[in-house]
């Protein structure tokens, strides 16, 4: 302080008029101060910095306009000085410079537009360069960024010529300014029991509150017809140059901003921006690719129909070509984005997106299917939509059902099955039935695979709904019948049990001798004791035994075998139908009755009440088919024998109530066949049962059957 006071006294003695003297020797003083700020002595550096602060506040800015960059350079150098007092003095200098700069470019504060342009032209490149926000010194970077953000906020129209460059620099800065610890956590998420996707989601969320993004919004608001071209160009460059999630995500958000805030200006650039977004859909980071998928959805607002259709094909390629789930998820996000953010355009090109959505919602992975499910649900209503896009769905099925990817084959199979199920006899007439039969028949060829049962189901469903077409194309009918028989004889047990359901549906509508003969052959094998001999090992490594111990009645193995037998019995009974002339196949009926009653005492599993119920339900359905038809002695005897076995097993005191009730109702169906001898045998058993049964509900059912018989 004493040195400062002494120097002030000397100055006051030698210099009578400070302002005139400083003005006269300003260049000399400025040069000396700038040189001294690099002196080895910290006191000299500190004093020079303070003096320079005083000087620039004394002189008008235009007086040192030519040296402004040098002043800023030395000020930032002082911020990174080793001595704290020098850094403190430099901080005061930079604040003063920032205030002068902001006032100098603010036309509203009285500055001329020309002066503002000159200052920005000189200082913006400096602040954006390696001596500013790209400096190695953290304090310098922070102050440079703060100054630029203030300029954006205060400069008004003066900043317009630099909007493109600023937006690009801001985008690229997002990753540079992100703390390194976040990158470390992302790369080592597993070590800390974290998920990288969750970290990325938080990083993306943080962009919204970033002051840089706020500045970008201000800049986007000032875009006009004079700078829109350079802005779009700079955004494209930013997308290509961006490294790191923050910058890449920021670039995608800028594209969205341009469309939201400058819709009419951006229309000529819609295809360009859509292609730019499309190029990033395969980014390794799912968060980044999803961000650009969303941006692409906005871009479709300002694109032509042809361009959006072309984009839909790119999405389809992503979904079908890769075996990985990530591209399929991105395809789902991209499809949903078009639907959500470009609704009017989506309606115009729905046929380019909704068939894929229908396909995608059948995918086995919930993460993928739920995305397409939302798109389909929000843009369609009921089965009519399936019929509307049936042709496009068939095209996708035809292309992928015989492909190398089993996942796509499964999706194709499920899709065509649901699509065929949506058709009725009227709708079938409006689709290309011949082509559809060709697709399904070809897809049923070859070995069984998971999902093939859906293709067979679709083939049978289509056949049942296309009776007129079938009647005029007997060759197609023969091909379908042959396919149904062949598929039902497959050795793959998991597949065969589903194939038999389709066989039964087909045989029920088209009963024939050849179908009954093949059904006999198939079910004889299924109901044989050695059916499970070739079964693979269980998950626990133990070999399957033909006979299950009594203690395993509730085991998964026992319940599975019983369920398989119930399903087979249902198909077997369903196949039993009358021929067109009213006759029926005696041999098949006898086999069906014997197979049903054999279920009471199987050799390969322990029966439960479910088996008891399945037997009576099967006999009941057979009785309905036989109602009103005469019975041969052999058939009558087999029916009476079957009833006696049912009565013996299902009317015990410990039998489940529901089984007893269904048994009595089945007795009623047998009586209604109309055969006097059969009815007598059944009624006699019911009267005996009534005399010893205590359950009131069962008694009501027995009384009802007996009264109906008397009437």
UniProtKB/TrEMBL annotation:
Tell me the superkingdom of the source.
Eukaryota
Which BP terms does GO give this entry?
A: ERAD pathway
What InterPro entries does UniProt report for this protein, alphabetically?
ARM-like (IPR011989), ARM-type_fold (IPR016024), HEAT_ECM29 (IPR055443)
Does Repeat count among this protein's keywords? yes
Q: Which chain positions lie within coiled-coil regions?
A: none
Show the GO cellular component annotation of the record: cytoplasm; nucleus
One Pfam family it belongs to: ARM_ECM29_C
**Keyword set, alphabetical order:** Repeat
Question: Which GO molecular function entries does the Swiss-Prot or TrEMBL record give?
Answer: molecular adaptor activity
Give every Proteasome adapter and scaffold protein ECM29 HEAT-repeat domain span: 159-320
The answer to whether UniProt assigns keyword Repeat to this entry is: yes
Q: What protein is this chain from? A: Proteasome adapter and scaffold protein ECM29 HEAT-repeat domain-containing protein
Species whose genome carries this gene = Cyberlindnera jadinii (strain ATCC 18201 / CBS 1600 / BCRC 20928 / JCM 3617 / NBRC 0987 / NRRL Y-1542) (Torula yeast)
């Amino acid at each position: 302080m004493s040195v400062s006071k002494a120097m002030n006294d000397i100055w006051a003695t030698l210099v009578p008029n400070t302002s005139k003297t400083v003005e006269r020797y300003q260049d000399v003083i400025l040069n000396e101060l700038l040189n001294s700020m690099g002196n080895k002595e910290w006191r000299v550096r500190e004093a020079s910095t303070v003096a320079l602060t005083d000087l620039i506040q004394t002189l008008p800015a235009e007086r040192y306009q030519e040296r402004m960059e040098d002043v800023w350079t030395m000020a930032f150098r002082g911020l990174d000085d080793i001595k704290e007092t020098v850094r403190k003095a430099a901080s005061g200098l930079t604040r003063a410079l920032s205030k002068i700069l902001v006032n100098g470019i603010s036309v509203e504060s009285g500055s001329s537009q020309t002066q503002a342009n000159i200052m920005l032209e000189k200082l913006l490149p400096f602040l954006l360069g390696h001596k500013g926000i790209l400096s190695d010194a953290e304090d310098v970077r922070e102050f440079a960024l703060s100054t630029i953000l203030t300029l954006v906020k205060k400069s008004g129209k003066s900043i317009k010529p630099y909007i493109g460059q600023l937006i690009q620099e801001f985008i690229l800065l997002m990753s540079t300014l992100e703390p390194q610890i976040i990158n470390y956590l992302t790369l080592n998420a597993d070590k800390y029991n974290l998920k990288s996707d969750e970290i990325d989601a938080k990083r993306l969320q943080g962009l919204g509150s970033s002051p840089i993004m706020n500045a970008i919004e201000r800049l986007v608001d000032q875009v006009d017809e004079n700078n829109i071209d350079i802005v779009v160009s700079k955004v494209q460059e930013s997308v290509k140059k961006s490294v790191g999630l923050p910058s890449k995500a920021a670039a995608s958000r800028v594209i969205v901003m341009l469309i939201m805030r400058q819709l009419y200006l951006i229309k000529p650039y819609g295809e360009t921006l859509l292609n730019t977004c499309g190029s990033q859909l395969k980014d390794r980071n799912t968060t980044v690719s999803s961000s650009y998928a969303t941006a692409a959805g906005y871009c479709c607002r300002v694109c032509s129909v042809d361009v959006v259709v072309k984009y839909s094909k790119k999405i389809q390629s992503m979904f079908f070509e890769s075996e990985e789930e990530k591209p399929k998820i991105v395809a789902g996000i991209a499809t949903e984005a078009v639907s959500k953010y470009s609704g009017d355009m989506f309606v115009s090109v729905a046929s380019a997106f909704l068939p894929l959505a229908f396909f995608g919602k059948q995918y086995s992975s919930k993460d993928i299917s739920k995305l397409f499910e939302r798109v389909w649900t929000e843009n369609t209503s009921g089965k009519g939509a399936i019929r509307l896009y049936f042709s496009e769905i068939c095209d996708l099925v035809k292309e992928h059902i015989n492909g190398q990817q089993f996942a796509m084959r499964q999706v194709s199979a499920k899709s065509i099955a649901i699509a065929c199920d949506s058709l009725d006899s009227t709708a079938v007439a409006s689709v290309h039935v011949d082509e559809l039969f060709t697709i399904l028949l070809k897809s049923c060829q070859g070995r069984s695979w998971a999902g093939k049962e859906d293709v067979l189901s679709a083939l049978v469903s289509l056949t049942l709904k296309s009776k007129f077409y079938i009647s005029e194309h007997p060759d197609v009918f023969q091909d379908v019948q042959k396919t149904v028989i062949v598929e039902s004889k497959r050795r793959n047990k998991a597949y065969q049990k589903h194939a038999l359901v389709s066989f039964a549906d087909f045989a029920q509508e088209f009963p024939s001798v050849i179908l009954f003969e093949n059904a006999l052959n198939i079910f004889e094998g299924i109901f044989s004791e050695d059916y499970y001999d070739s079964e693979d090992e269980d998950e626990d490594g133990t070999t399957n035994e033909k006979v299950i111990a009594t203690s395993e009645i509730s085991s998964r193995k026992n319940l599975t075998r019983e369920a398989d037998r119930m399903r087979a019995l249902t198909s077997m009974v369903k196949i039993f139908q009358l021929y067109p002339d009213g006759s029926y196949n005696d041999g098949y009926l006898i086999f069906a009755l014997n197979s049903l009653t054999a279920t009471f005492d199987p050799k390969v599993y322990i029966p439960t009440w479910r088996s008891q119920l399945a037997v009576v339900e099967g006999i009941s359905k057979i009785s309905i088919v036989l109602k009103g038809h005469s019975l041969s002695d052999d058939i009558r005897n087999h029916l009476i024998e079957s009833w006696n076995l049912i009565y013996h097993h299902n009317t015990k005191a410990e039998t489940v109530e529901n089984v007893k009730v269904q048994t009595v109702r089945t007795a009623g169906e047998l009586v209604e066949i109309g055969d006097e001898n059969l009815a007598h045998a059944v009624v006699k058993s019911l009267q005996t049962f009534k005399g010893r049964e205590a359950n009131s509900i069962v008694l009501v059912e027995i009384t009802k059957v007996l009264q109906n018989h008397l009437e």
